[in-house]
Amino acid sequence: IAAMQPSTNWHLKENARDHHTSKFSSKELIVRRGQGFTVTFNGTGQPEQNLTFIAETGPKPSKLAKTQATFGISSTTTTESWSAVVQSTSSNSVSISISSPPNAVIGRYKLSVQTTSSGSSSPAILGTFVLLFNPWSSGDDVFMPNKAECEEYVLEEFGIIFAGNKNHINSFGWNFGQFQGDILNICLSMLDRSLNYRQDPATDVSHRNDPKYLGRVLSAMVNANDDQGVLLGNWSGNYEGGKSPSSWTGSGEILQNWKKSGFKPVRYGQCWVFAAVLTTVLRCLGIPTRTITNFSSAHDADGNLRVDEFYDASGNHLDRSADSIWNFHVWNESWFSRSDLGPSYGGWQVLDATPQEESGGIYQCGPASRNAIKEGDVDLDYDCPFVFAEVNADCMYWNYEATTGKKTLMFSKSTVIGQFISTKAVGRDDRVDVTIDYKYEEGSTKERDIFKKARKKLGLEDKFDPTAPTPQEIDQKPDISGKFKVAGPLEVGKDLSLILVLENLQSDAKTVHVNMTVWSTVYTRRPVHEIRKDSISATLSPKEEIQLPIKILYTEYQQQLTTDNTIQVTALCLVEGGIQVLVQRDIILDNPAIDIQVLGEAKVNKEVDVEVIFTNPVDTELMNCVLQVEGNDLLRGILEIDVPPVKASEKSSTKFKLIPFETGHKHLLVNFSCDKFADIKTFKMVNVID
């Protein structure tokens, strides 16, 4: 006899409330592992002792792989396995509390029920549900004891990402949107498109109980390299055929576009976009995750914990080395225990989805235990040497003579890399500095000891490195010192005033020939367009300091600027009879400000007006002005508004209406672009009341 098809009540509202999944807008039950949920069904017509449940996930469910569980009714829940406990019965229905173990495989499950007394009848399908990680449950690898941190790192859909450079930190808002629309399904399909799944689906699914496994797989899937993943990276400064990385304001649009295109990589991403999308995916699946910005971040391509930069005699930054020092780099930290390494290496783990170097043959990075990085334990899984170098590498600046191939060390620094490591505060829109969690105090004996320990573990202490500078080269003392001082505002649309300050350190006169270059760059400090080249000579009396003013006109740099608004000024100073001195400054220009005003109180399901105000700071008309607006629970999707041209020095006001549909603190994100300014961003917190 075929069993009757039971009708199922999943108690969506109550279960979601108990499992911290109320923010998902799904008609399907979404629950967290290691915790009970209630389901009521009717139509078996059997005493409940005769019921057997089957929960299964993946393409080949099996008990051995822990992707299938069969369990009957018991009197209490067990933490080791799936269990079912009767909560109540009536004449024609039964309510059961079903619990999964805290180490269950996550993903979409099918739940069926079978009655033992009906002989060989096939099980009746109750339906499907999705099981996620549970940071609120002490048995889970991702357990986070601090509830405020769970709220921020799993449930918060708004984030702040830090950028700029070490002299000038700026920030912008981001809409992670992990609970919106179809995002959960896109995250699950991302797992099913990974290389591991394609090679062996059943084994891949059986590993999905392990946050370190999923973190590593997803760090590969968020970039397009190797696996047709979500985002294609582009650092050229030319973003034709796609959207410029700085134009995105949230992950939702990127993930939706990836799905809509039939899973073709979305164009284009740079580090913060990769990190923000990975944050969305991991928070969605229930792994506590945040974005981290490292200023003066080393990309050590050859694994020698040293970054080499080369300059020619004119002061041009040469592309001779795969190593580089980025103004900033953004990666992720996710919170989970490391049963493979031991208790002292649990907690925050570094994951990086930006495709920089291959690991295990594909572009993926992490999880690297943050404690292992701080203690120099670079021999531990995964990718610790690369992350250690990002925050600790020494830098060497060389002069390179193309005709002879001769390279001369100009100077080396061990305190440049890894500064102001930043993340958003819990429950506030502030910056928190976490540098001390990555390394001991810069310049302290402990910090140098850890650096030596790491070099030793990597086998760098013992082997001769022909490319390394000699002790004599490192100890040589220059005759002059130099620095660039800023004398005036650093704003797009204004002329830039700098002063090159040169000081003679010796007690005899010195003649200096200065070759200066000015280039626009992307944030990785990769030169894109030359703005200017200059040479000057000067004689400095003993101990004299001179100031050479430099003015860079807006008309001169305006066409050359990249969307990162970064300019690199380099002066290569050749002292007659002495060693060369490199003076350099990376400058970030601020965009003009944009202002959002919410006109009146924001109430659920009531229209409210919003005004965006922008003043044109330049003396030419701004064309092709577009305003892009997004914000969860404030509007659906992304609002694009074409703004009429803005005349010189004129104020532009754009009004639009919102109808908020949820109460609470919501964030409205705005991005304004035109022909002269790229991606002017701001955000506004909107308190929506009943």
TrEMBL record:
Tell me which UniProt keywords the record has, alphabetically: Acyltransferase, Calcium, Metal-binding, Transferase
Annotated EC: 2.3.2.13
Keyword field contains RNA-binding: no
**Record SMART domains:** TGc
Residues in the active site? Answer: 271, 329, 352
Q: Name one Pfam family in it.
A: Transglut_core
Establish whether keyword Acyltransferase is in the entry. yes
What highest taxon heads this organism's lineage? Eukaryota
Cofactor names from the entry are: Ca(2+)
Q: Which residues form the Transglutaminase-like domain?
A: 263-355
Annotated Ca(2+) binding sites: 392, 394, 442, 447
Quote the cofactor binding remark.
Binds 1 Ca(2+) ion per subunit.
Q: Which GO terms describe its molecular function?
A: metal ion binding; protein-glutamine gamma-glutamyltransferase activity
Q: Which PROSITE patterns match?
A: TRANSGLUTAMINASES
Q: Which reaction does it catalyse?
A: L-glutaminyl-[protein] + L-lysyl-[protein] = [protein]-L-lysyl-N(6)-5-L-glutamyl-[protein] + NH4(+)
What family does this chain come from, according to its entry? Belongs to the transglutaminase superfamily. Transglutaminase family.
According to UniProt, the name of this protein is protein-glutamine gamma-glutamyltransferase
Which organism's genome codes for this protein? Probosciger aterrimus (Palm cockatoo)
Q: What is the lineage of its organism?
A: Eukaryota, Metazoa, Chordata, Craniata, Vertebrata
Name the gene that codes for it. Answer: Tgm3_0
